[in-house]
Design brief:
By secondary structure, this protein is an alpha/beta fold. It has one domain: Rossmann fold (3-Layer(aba) Sandwich), CATH 3.40.50. Helices cover about 45% and strands about 10% of the residues. It is built from ten helices and five strands. The chain has a five-stranded parallel beta sheet, sandwiched between helices. It starts with a helix and ends in a 14-residue tail after the last helix.
C-alpha cells in the first residue's frame, strides 16, 4: 500500500524532473568540501563569475548537517550556481546529483593541517558545526588539549567524509594545496568538468579582484600540521587502518 508520504514524494519527483528537463542546461556545481579546506575562497571566486551565483542548498545551518534539501535544489535549478556544502556522499546525495544534474567537486586538505586550522577557527570565529558538539567552555583548554579533542571528536567525521566520496565515480577531486598555489587553474578545471567554458582572464578577475581579507582564508599556509605531537598523528593514522583498501594520500596519509 502506498503511503501519503510516498505519494507526495512521487509527485515531487515528477515535478522536479519536468522542471529541470524543460529548462535549458544549467551549470550546477556541488562543492562538497572538508571544513577549513579553502572552500569559501573557492566558491566565492566561482560565484563572482558572470552568470553564476553562489547559493546554498540546505535548510539549516550551524550545528545541523548540511544535507541537500530537494525542495531548495528544485527552486534553484533554474540558475547557474555553485553550492559549497560540508556534505557526505550517500544515496540521497547521489540522487540529488543525478536529479538536478549537478557536477560534484570534492575539495580536501592535508588532514594534519586541518587540525590546526580547526583549532584556529574555534578560537577566532565559532565552535558551532555539525562535526562535533563543541561548547564555548572548551575554549578554556590549552591548544594541546583542543588538538586532542579535534583529533578524537572531529577528525573521524573527516575520515567519514573522505571515504564516502571515494564511492562517487564522477567526482572531480581537488586539493586545498593545489587551489591556493594556482586558483585560476583550479577554477578552470571545475568549469571544464561542468561544461561551462569561461575565458581565463575572466576567471583571474573573479579571483584576484576580491578582497583576500574577506575570504576567511585563515592562515592559508600548508604544512602547519607538522607541529602536531606524534601521538596525535598516530591516532589519525590508525583511523586509516579501518579502510585498508582506501587510498588516503590526497589528505596526507600515505
Amino acid at each position: 500500500m502506498t503511503t501519503l508520504g510516498q505519494a507526495l514524494r512521487a509527485v515531487f519527483d515528477v515535478a522536479a524532473h519536468n522542471i529541470v528537463m524543460k529548462t535549458a542546461p544549467r551549470t550546477h556545481i556541488l562543492l562538497a568540501c572538508m571544513p577549513k579546506s579553502g572552500s569559501t575562497y573557492l566558491s566565492n571566486a566561482i560565484g563572482r563569475l558572470p552568470g553564476i551565483r553562489k547559493t546554498s542548498l540546505v535548510s539549516g545551518a550551524a550545528r545541523a548537517e548540511q544535507e541537500i534539501n530537494f525542495r531548495v535544489a528544485l527552486r534553484k535549478s533554474k540558475y547557474h550556481y555553485v553550492s559549497q556544502q560540508h556534505v557526505r556522499y550517500h544515496s540521497r546525495t547521489a540522487e540529488a546529483i543525478q536529479k538536478f544534474q549537478m557536477t560534484p567537486v570534492v575539495l580536501v586538505r592535508d588532514i594534519f593541517d586541518c587540525v590546526v586550522s580547526i583549532r584556529d577557527h574555534w578560537r577566532n570565529e565559532s565552535v558551532r558545526a555539525p562535526m562535533a558538539y563543541v561548547l564555548e567552555d572548551h575554549l578554556a583548554m590549552d591548544d594541546g588539549e583542543l588538538d586532542r579533542m579535534i583529533v578524537q571528536m572531529v577528525i573521524p567525521w573527516y575520515i567519514n567524509f573522505f571515504v564516502s566520496w571515494t564511492r562517487c565515480k564522477d567526482a572531480l577531486w581537488l586539493r586545498y594545496e593545489d587551489v591556493i598555489s594556482d586558483p585560476v587553474e583550479a577554477v578552470a578545471c571545475i568549469l571544464d568538468r561542468a561544461g561551462h567554458s569561461t575565458d581565463p582572464d575572466i576567471i583571474s578577475a573573479a579571483i584576484y579582484g576580491s578582497n583576500p581579507a574577506a575570504e576567511r582564508r585563515n592562515v592559508g599556509r600548508p604544512g602547519r600540521g607538522v607541529s602536531l605531537p606524534d601521538e596525535l598523528k598516530q591516532i589519525i593514522r590508525e583511523y586509516r587502518d579501518f579502510y585498508p583498501d582506501t587510498d588516503f594520500s590526497l589528505i596526507g596519509l600515505e
